[in-house]
């Protein structure tokens, strides 16, 4: 059974959450780090919310696209982990 760590990105379905798994690997020939994102549907019985870091475990197929269950919530998303949005620059006109 696989155990994966990811972040909940959607809880719009009634009993299922979408979890994003980010994996980084080194290219075997060139050595560059390659990042891959996978979206996995997982059964959400423990009430994980959007932005939570979770551990998911592989189970028997529950539906066509659901093969995982959320096992544990590791924590909430912190402000430093969120992508920083650039601040809007507002032009202030000086009076002369």
The appropriate CATH architecture is Beta Barrel
User: What name does the CATH topology carry?
Assistant: OB fold (Dihydrolipoamide Acetyltransferase, E2P)
The number of helices is 0
Strand line-up of the largest beta sheet: 1-2-3-5-4
Cα separation of the termini = 72 Å
Query: Could you give the order of the helices and strands?
Result: EEEEE
**CATH class term:** Mainly Beta
Shape: flat
Rg, nearest Å: 19 Å
Calculate the mean pLDDT score and round it. Answer: 87
| Low-pLDDT sequence parts | none
Tell me the domain tally: 1
Task: Give the helix/strand layout.
Elements: E1 3-10, E2 16-26, E3 33-43, E4 53-58, E5 66-75
Parallel strand pairs: 3-5
Antiparallel strand pairs: 1-2, 1-4, 2-3, 4-5
Family: Belongs to the universal ribosomal protein uS17 family.
Protein name: 30S ribosomal protein S17
Organism: Candidatus Shapirobacteria bacterium CG11_big_fil_rev_8_21_14_0_20_40_12
């Amino acid at each position: 059974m696989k155990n994966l760590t990811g972040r909940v990105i959607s809880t719009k379905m009634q009993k299922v959450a979408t979890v994003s798994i980010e994996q980084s690997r080194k290219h075997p020939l060139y050595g560059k780090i390659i990042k891959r994102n996978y979206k996995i549907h997982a059964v959400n019985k423990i009430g994980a919310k959007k932005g939570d870091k979770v551990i998911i475990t592989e189970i028997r197929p529950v539906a066509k696209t659901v093969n995982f269950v959320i096992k544990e919530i590791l924590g909430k998303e912190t402000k430093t982990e969120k992508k920083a949005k650039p601040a809007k620059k507002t032009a202030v006109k000086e009076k002369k």
